[in-house]
Amino acid sequence: MSIVVSEICPAYSTFYGFLGAACALIFANFGSCYGAAKAGVGVCVMGVLHPALIVKSTIPTIMAGILGIYGLIAAIIIEMGIGNQYTLYASFAHLSGGLCVGFSALAAGICIGIVGDAGVRANARQPKLFVGMLLILIFGEALALYGLIVGLIIAMKGQNQSCAVVNP
Q1: Architecture of the domain delimited by 13-160
Q2: Where in the cell is it found (predicted)?
Q3: Average pLDDT over residues 25-39
């Protein structure tokens, strides 16, 4: 297995592709961890006052955990696109797709963590707030899903590139 090296397929192009896969996974996991930790603190504090609401209040923590899966999906798809004939165009497409997925999941994790923490505490005092909290969480999660969709579309842009040099 030999790697094709040319002007449009430099040896360092794989670095950018793998960096895109790593960024998708790392930033999505940062968002997932932050959201789960922040919302988990709210669940623990609320659980002391109202133990019966603990299971119902784990929804933000579960939603935050899903964000890491988005990064995993993107990283696997990006990594599968890296091969012998890997153009610079494809590598930058993979880098930008990975950043799109990773940063979207990071932002969604921050949103889910803050809303989840405050929401479960408020829900313990006023149960009518549960639906409102759930809607805000869904819209926060949707931002990560939008990032996943756009990131995968961007990453797929470089799939049909070739390292063959065309002489005019």
Answers
A1: Up-down Bundle (1.20)
A2: Membrane; Vacuole membrane
A3: 97
